[in-house]
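Work Package 3 (structural annotation) set out to generate three-dimensional models for the target panel prioritized at the project kickoff. During this period the team completed the workflow that converts sequence records into discrete structure tokens, so that structures can be stored uniformly alongside our sequence database. As a representative example, we reproduce one entry of 312 residues exactly as it appears in the project archive.
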Amino acid sequence: MCDLTMPPIYQTISIHPSETVSVHSSGLGWPGTEIVCMIAVLATIILMGSLAFGRVDRPRMKMAVLLCVLTASGWSASGEVPTTLNVYGPPDDLISDGIIKELTEEYCDEYGTTVNVTCVNGRKALLNGVVKSGETVDLVILEEEYPLFNLSGMKTLTDEGLIESYHHLYRKRALMILQRGGDVSSLDDLNEKKVAVTDQHVPGACLSLEIIKDAGLNVTNVTVESTEAQLDAVVDGRADATILWDSIFESCTNSSREEIEVVDLPEYGMDNFIAVLKDAPHRPEAERYEAYLLEAISGENSLDLPGSKAVA
């Protein structure tokens, strides 16, 4: 796989509840904060007012002490520290800047939870990080298996006894991008054609090379410096086609050009699943977050959800 020789890169996105929304009370979040703060402010006003007049009479002191006790009780009842979930996943746009991030923001607002999403470049590095993490990771997002790159994320976590079940979350599509109006309409048609590829060691860059090799195609490689340049080579006619992950294609500047058309390669799509770790430090909260995501995106056709798998 093209990212095997690169050192793993960890990027953590910390998503906090908004300060302007009401927090859903469930016993797992941090409800009632506004009331506690109001009590604390009132106690302070009483004490400061008494000091300003040069005396602290007994009734006012009793009232201030009572309010302070109520404040302390309120903080204790509401939970001393809000829950923080730790999620590990690949650097896919759906997670870092798409629908999964948006749903996570909504979840944090509703339940008063902070979610740290750590995206790791290199799926094998991600898997190794989860296996060696001990009891610090709550959830993981990974493929079940993907033979083209010799990946087996959820299968390995199952064999290691780290998860009990996993649920389909989204699908990465492999797209063949062609010159519009040409004589290429399927993968087999690429024989004897020019295909744009890159050998840069970044996640997803080797998809075109690996699919060509797997399909046994005889093509002329047009080697360029980046995944975006692969698309540019098709647009300007230097290549007949290229192959990119859907998220990479959609992020390219020329993805909407009229000179190209797109063909899905379903046999090379990668399904990604979500799982709660058996030893997750915040397992009840993690299971609720997982259920929230699955329910919210179950109606999204673009995510193509086939179901879940129990592996215990």
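Residues 9-16+82-171+274-310 form a domain with the D-Maltodextrin-Binding Protein; domain 2 fold (CATH 3.40.190.10).
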